[in-house]
Amino acid sequence: MPSVLPDGEPMPEDGALPATALAEAERRPLGFYLHVPYCATRCGYCDFNTYTASELRGSGGVLASRDNYAEQVVEEVRLARKVLGDDPRPVETVFVGGGTPTLLAAADLGRMLGAIREEFGLAEGVEVTTEANPESVDPRYLAELREAGFNRISFGMQSARQHVLKVLDRTHTPGRPEACVAEARAAGFDHVNLDLIYGTPGESDADWRASLEAALGAGPDHVSAYALIVEEGTQLARRIRRGEVPMTDDDVHADRYLIAEEILSAAGFAWYEVSNWATSPAGRCRHNELYWRGADWWGAGPGAHSHVGGVRWWNVKHPGAYAQALGEGRSPGAGRELLTAEERRVERILLELRLVEGCPLELLRPAGAAAAARALEDGLLDPGPYGRGRAVLTLRGRLLADAVVRDLVD
């Protein structure tokens, strides 16, 4: 979750939504995202809305304590129930992210999930995920999570090479994420993901191949692989600007992506979103698919974003301000925007084109349709789905996904 919030109109103090937002809500899936903003240390590349203990000290740190954070999230879940009224939908996915959610006690994460279960109910076959730092869990903790109702877990592996982890300021030791997969399986987790990053300064093709092979050797059923984005204001950006480490160029990123596709597909993984691969449809992250398909979700926690029926809003960033708002009986929302039909059309193209199913060609305006025809000729779109009315990226198209999207949205 990026740390910079967008502009927008003020959020009502009671968090009320326009009646149009809940129209035909029963036709859309509903999910929850729970943001845990705490980290033990700050990674050099991270631009997310997260805080270490020292960063909170003296800036609302009492209100923002980890010790009472679960209760604050529970309060926002109760607020969500009031705002959504008699919405009959059970929750289909829950995703706890951060930050490092597993810095909280497993019982606290279970309490947050329990509030959603109590207020909304959980759908049959609900997907319940938490992110985890490999060094912040052990077999007992994982067993407690599973007992609380979590059935999917995502470990931040990033790399199998120590020198790459050092550049990223990651604190876990090589081999620990792989061990975590085995511990999660033993605890009874149905689905396990490993997150990888490619394009770190100083990483070689051989380093990247080693990371992929190590990840696959651990036996997850889902792998996410993201190109490193150097965000302004981060420690890594400052190091690159000072010339301490080199910047990785786009050609290297493309080569690393091709290596990922080669190794993952050979191991039985199939891409279903540009940066995500799974061994089967059941292994896909249904919560993220909910985002990409424009469904409804409530984001609880500092800086968390929500979307319901074309209304998007976001919470205040700082944990202290978040706690204060809830303590005073106010919505922690900082602002919102009501998406127009055109904005929703453009967002559908932006997001759905990244999926293996692609987006309907009928969403395109004439200029976008002409751009799609050119992309087909250039080998960026798959001719089979195109003939059936859908724009689906080829492997080459995935390498140039951002450029293809820009053309298709006019």
From TrEMBL:
It is found in: Cytoplasm. GO terms for biological process: porphyrin-containing compound biosynthetic process. Keywords: 4Fe-4S, Chaperone, Cytoplasm, Heme, Iron, Iron-sulfur, Metal-binding, S-adenosyl-L-methionine. SMART domains: Elp3. One of its GO terms (cellular component) is cytoplasm. One of its GO terms (molecular function) is coproporphyrinogen oxidase activity. It holds the Pfam family Radical_SAM. Belongs to the anaerobic coproporphyrinogen-III oxidase family. HemW subfamily. This is Heme chaperone HemW. It comes from Streptomyces melanosporofaciens.
